[in-house]
């Protein structure tokens, strides 16, 4: 082989090598671009998922807030007249006492008139959510449901720890007790 041929061969080899290096370089650059694109896509997907999660949490928090305020509003409406109803309870107690005394009277028209007014008052208060807590003599005393005014010696053994007499009726407004029944218990 002549020197010229050798030179040409070396030049061809260099061109081939440069061509291969250029292809390798282009392939490497393409791979890096693909990797960068995948990384950017992954980052974008993670950011999107994070934003979706934030949105869902915020939405759930808002729904809980709406439910809570709605429930509070309903409770407020149920007990809105509580003060007025509580101030009416002594009047209702006096009316009950008066009715007991009027029943002793001979005048039937008076009895009927007072009964009508008494029933109308009770029904009006009942329509506003007021309920009587029923307690009778002989019921078991429960400190969570009754207010003991005093204790007296039980007239019989079976009345120990039980209610002997009801002094004042108790009332509930919806589910809330606004006045506990006042009772006398036996010991």
Q: What is the subunit organization of this protein?
A: single chain
Mean of pLDDT: 86
Helices and strands, in order, run as: HHHEEEEEE
Helix-and-strand structural type: alpha+beta
- Shape descriptor reads rod-shaped
**How far is the first residue's CA from the last residue's CA?**
132 Å
Largest sheet: 3 strands, antiparallel
The portion of residues forming beta strands comes to 15-25%
Give the uncertain stretches in residue-range form: none
- Provide the helix percentage: 55-70%
H/I helix tally: 3
Query: Could you tell me the radius of gyration in angstroms?
Result: 45 Å
Q: How are strands sequenced across the largest beta sheet?
A: 1-4-5
**Record field, number of beta strands:** 6
List the helices and strands and how they pair.
Elements: H1 3-78, H2 82-102, H3 108-127, E1 130-133, E2 147-152, E3 163-168, E4 170-173, E5 176-179, E6 182-186
Parallel strand pairs: 2-6
Antiparallel strand pairs: 1-4, 3-6, 4-5
Helix pairs in contact: 2-3
């Amino acid at each position: 082989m002549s020197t010229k041929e050798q030179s040409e061969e070396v030049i061809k080899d260099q061109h081939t090598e440069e061509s291969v290096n250029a292809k390798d370089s282009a392939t490497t650059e393409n791979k890096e671009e693909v990797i960068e694109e995948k990384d950017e896509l992954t980052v974008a997907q993670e950011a999107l998922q994070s934003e979706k999660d934030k949105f869902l949490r915020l939405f759930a928090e808002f729904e809980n807030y709406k439910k809570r305020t709605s429930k509070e509003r309903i409770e407020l409406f149920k007990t809105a007249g509580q003060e007025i109803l509580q101030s009416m309870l002594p009047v209702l107690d006096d009316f009950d006492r008066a009715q007991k005394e009027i029943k002793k009277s001979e005048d039937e028209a008076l009895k009927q008139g007072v009964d009508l007014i008494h029933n109308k008052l009770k029904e009006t208060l009942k329509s506003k959510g007021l309920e009587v807590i029923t307690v009778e003599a002989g019921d078991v005393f429960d400190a969570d449901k009754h207010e003991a005014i005093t204790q007296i010696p039980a007239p019989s053994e079976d009345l120990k720890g039980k209610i002997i007499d009801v002094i004042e009726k108790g009332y509930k407004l919806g589910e809330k007790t606004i006045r506990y029944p006042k009772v006398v218990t036996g010991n």
